[in-house]
Amino acid sequence: MLEGLLRRLAPRRPPDRLDAESLGAIAGNAGAGAPPPRVGQRRDIELVLSRKVLEAHLQNRRQLMQSDPADLREVDAEEAKLLVRAMAAAAHADGGLDARETSRIRRALASTRLADAERSELEASLAEPPCLETLLRGVSSEETATRFYAVSLAATERGRGANKSYLNYLAHRLKLPRDVTLRLNRAFDVPV
């Protein structure tokens, strides 16, 4: 399906700009005496819109196809701290940290660009569960919300009922679109 759309877009490049007449026809602002848009213009408009939808879809797909959400090398220090704390909150959701969860959090912490002192201080604070409400106030964008959920998935033992309930609650609180949570859950083999 995607390849067919790309093939249809490839032979003919739609115009980057539309003339005023075409824009008026799109907006429905054409007067009663204005000629209807030509068939070729309509096709060009459809191709431009198709390209925009495809580009948005591919951008979203690239964001979701990140290999390891707990690899925090590319995020700034404040977001890295937030995401490591998010992992700790998720790991504590079932009542405490086990060895695997601790290992996952330490691996994520080691991938950050934090100074050694900051890293040690953050690691020491993870023994106690962080306040989820405080963490959620630090989420300022949809991208950060998606990443917050993804690292929470990466940190937990997903087979446990308490963790599943926590992740459902978290997705709701982060206001993540259903399709995003479904894709992330599938990526981590979480039953939907």
Describe this entry's structure for a reader.
With 192 residues, this protein is mainly alpha-helical. It has helices at residues 2-9, 20-27, 39-64, 77-92, 99-110, 116-125, 132-137, 142-155, 161-173, 178-187. Helix 4 packs antiparallel against helix 5 (99-110), helix 4 packs across helix 8 (142-155) and helix 8 (142-155) runs parallel beside helix 10. The protein has two domains: 2-27 and 38-64; 77-187.
In short:
This protein has 192 residues and is mostly helical.
Helix-strand blueprint:
Elements: H1 2-9, H2 20-27, H3 39-64, H4 77-92, H5 99-110, H6 116-125, H7 132-137, H8 142-155, H9 161-173, H10 178-187
Features:
192 residues, mainly alpha, single chain, 10 helices, 2 domains
User: Structural class of the helices, strands and pairings?
Assistant: mainly alpha
* Terminal residue distance: 25 Å
Percent helix range: 55-70%
Helix and strand string, N-terminal first? HHHHHHHHHH
What is the overall number of helices? 10
Q: Could you tell me the radius of gyration in angstroms?
A: 23 Å
Q: Mean pLDDT, rounded to whole units?
A: 78
Assembly annotation: single chain
Strand portion: under 5%
Low-confidence segments: 11-18
Shape: elongated
**How is the biggest beta sheet arranged?**
none
What is the β-strand count?
0
Supply the number of structural domains: 2
